[in-house]
Amino acid sequence: MLSRKKWFIAFLLVLLFSGLTKLEKNHILTTTYAETLVAPQQPNEIVKRVVAFFGKSNETITVSAPVATPPLIEYKSIQPYDGGAMLSINQSQDLYASADGLIIYTGYTRQTGKTLTILYDTGETATFGFVEEFHQLPYTTISAGDIFASAESELLYIKVQKDGEEFEMSEIVNWLTVSDE
What InterPro entries does UniProt report for this protein, alphabetically (predicted)? Predict the structure, then answer.
């Protein structure tokens, strides 16, 4: 059934094109659509005529949607630990960068296992410990919202420093809070 419709449409288009050609050759129509469609060296001319016929405007419309900022880390509880904080997380999750920065360390330490350190453009240095998997290599630049690692165990260590001073527990909590600015 579908093939009959296709054949009918194709036959109708051939008749339409043939009729258009004859009308143009007999000077009944003053258009040159048939010549333009047949001439392979002028495909841009067809597009220009179709656009002119349908009246496409050159006006552009700026479209914007609210950008969803993912939370840096979702956690159940937070406790002080070794100059930083130990987070209890619900499930495995990706870790997102809070700002643009540079990953300056990926490796393993005795105290925090798999560890990753980011130097943010804001001057803050954030260290994440007990990470399950690194998604970026050392000395890689990252942008705000980029995924840099994933945490799959129940614990995650975070230590944030700025100007050589470690953040207190309340400052770490504020740092982890998502801001919609």
Answer: Dup_hybrid_motif
